Amino acid sequence: MAEKDIPNGKGGQEVTPWEVKGNEEGKIDYAKLVREFGCSYLDQPILDRMEKLTGHRPHHWLQRGIFFAHRDMKEVLDCYEKGQPFYLYTGRGPSSEALHLGHLIPFMFNVWLQKVFKVPIVIQITDDEKYLWRGLDLEESIRLGRENVRDIIACGFEAENTFIFSDFDYVGGAFYRNITKLQRAVTANQCKGIFGLNDTDNIGKVAFPAVQAAPCFSDSFPHMFGGRKDLQCLIPCAIDQDPYFRMTRHVAPPMGYKKPAQLYSSFFPALQGESGKMSASDPTSAIFVTDTPKQIKTKINKHAFSGGRDTEAEHREKGGNVDVDVSYKYLTFFLEDDERLEQIKQDYTSGKLLTGYLKAELIAVLQKMVAEHQERRKLVTDEVLDQFMKPRPMPNIFPRSPDLQINLLPPRS
Ligand code: TYM
C-alpha cells in the first residue's frame, strides 16, 4: 500500500486499536510511531495559523504537545480559510460501562474544535466492533454503547451540530453502500497486513474496518450533508486508531473522495506508568468518570507511579523526576493554568514540593472535574440522548452563517 501498512512498532512496542504496550524501557516511542505510520508532527506554524484563522488561542493540549501529530491539517485549514465546509469525525467502541479519563480526551478536544471552528461532528459508536472483538453479548454491547453516549454528550457537544450513531442502528442506506464500496476496494491480504489479523480470526473482523472507514465519506450522512461527496473530514483521536485511517486514505482518491485528515494525541497513561494507555479492563490502572471523590483519592495515593525519592530527606536533596511521575503527567492534561503547572514542575524537580503535595493537587483537580462531569451526565435524559442519535436534517450547518467572521489576529509573539 502507498501509506505505510506496518501494524506495530518494533522493539517490543505494540500500538494497535486493541492493544497499547510500551517498548523494553516501558515507554511509548512516539517518534517511531510517527515514522512508521507516516504522519507528521504538529508544528508551531500550524498552531499559529489555527489561531489566526479562528481567533482562538490553541487548546492547551495543542500547546503542550499532547495532540502532537497530524495528516493534512494544511488542507483542512485551507478549506476553512476559503469558507469551504469540513466536518469532524470521532468515535467510541463501548467495551465498558463507564469511560475512563483517557477516553474523555478526544471528546473534550472535539467539543473545543466544534465550538472554535463552528463545524458539525459525527460520532460513531462501534458496538459491532466490540461484539466481534470482545466476546460481549450483543444486547450488552448496545446497552454499553448507550451508556457511553451519555458521557460523550456530557462533554458538551452542540445538539444542532452533532450526530451520534450506533453501528447496529445506523448501518443501512447510504452508509451501507459506502461500507460495501470500501469492502470491495480493500483485499483480505491488505486488511490482514494493516490490522495484524490472521486466518483464525472471525470474518467479521476482516469486514469491520470498512465500517469505521465509511464515516470518513460525507455522503454516508445524507440527512446532514445532502449526499455531498466532497466534504473534507477531520478525525481527532489518539494515535492507536491510525490503522483504520491509513487504510481509508489509501482507497479514498480512487473511490472519488478526499483523503480524511487526522489530528492525533498521545495516550493518557495508566496510573502505574507510561508503558501503556489507561485500560478500562484493569480498574486499578484507570480513573473512571463514575469514580467517587474517595475512590479518586485512594487510586492516586495508592497506585499513581511517583517520580519522587525514597525518603523525604533524599527528595529534598535531589528532587523528583517529572518525566516519569504520573501525577505530574495527569496535571499536564487537566491543569489548564500554565503558570501553576510550571511552578509545580520547578518545585518538584528542586525537591521543594513532596510527592504527597503533588498528589493532593492532582486529586483536587480531578475530583472537581469528575464531579462536574457527573452533574452534567445527570442532565442527559433518554429524550436528550435520542435527540442526538436521531438521523435528522441539519439545515443550518452549511453554508457557514454569514455573520461568522474569520478573525485575523496578529501572529503570536
Ligand atoms: P475506543 O473506545 O478504544 O477509544 C475511544 C477514543 O478514546 C481514545 N483513547 C485514548 N485517548 C487518550 N488516552 C488514552 N488512554 C485513550 N484510550 C483510548 C481512542 O483513540 C478513541 O479516540 N474503534 C474505536 C471507535 C471509533 C473511533 C472512530 C475512534 C470508531 N470510529 C473514529 C476514533 C475515531 C474504539 O474502539 O475506540
Automatic annotation (TrEMBL):
<dbReference type="GO" id="GO:0009791">
    <property type="term" value="P:post-embryonic development"/>
</dbReference>
<dbReference type="InterPro" id="IPR014729">
    <property type="entry name" value="Rossmann-like_a/b/a_fold"/>
</dbReference>
<comment type="similarity">
    <text>Belongs to the class-I aminoacyl-tRNA synthetase family.</text>
</comment>
<keyword id="KW-0648">Protein biosynthesis</keyword>
<dbReference type="InterPro" id="IPR002306">
    <property type="entry name" value="Trp-tRNA-ligase"/>
</dbReference>
<keyword id="KW-0067">ATP-binding</keyword>
<dbReference type="GO" id="GO:0048608">
    <property type="term" value="P:reproductive structure development"/>
</dbReference>
<keyword id="KW-0436">Ligase</keyword>
<dbReference type="GO" id="GO:0006436">
    <property type="term" value="P:tryptophanyl-tRNA aminoacylation"/>
</dbReference>
<dbReference type="GO" id="GO:0005737">
    <property type="term" value="C:cytoplasm"/>
</dbReference>
<dbReference type="InterPro" id="IPR001412">
    <property type="entry name" value="aa-tRNA-synth_I_CS"/>
</dbReference>
<protein>
    <recommendedName>
        <fullName>Tryptophan--tRNA ligase, cytoplasmic</fullName>
        <ecNumber>6.1.1.2</ecNumber>
    </recommendedName>
</protein>
<keyword id="KW-0547">Nucleotide-binding</keyword>
<dbReference type="InterPro" id="IPR002305">
    <property type="entry name" value="aa-tRNA-synth_Ic"/>
</dbReference>
<dbReference type="GO" id="GO:0004830">
    <property type="term" value="F:tryptophan-tRNA ligase activity"/>
</dbReference>
<dbReference type="Pfam" id="PF00579">
    <property type="entry name" value="tRNA-synt_1b"/>
</dbReference>
<dbReference type="GO" id="GO:0005524">
    <property type="term" value="F:ATP binding"/>
</dbReference>
<keyword id="KW-0030">Aminoacyl-tRNA synthetase</keyword>
<keyword id="KW-0963">Cytoplasm</keyword>
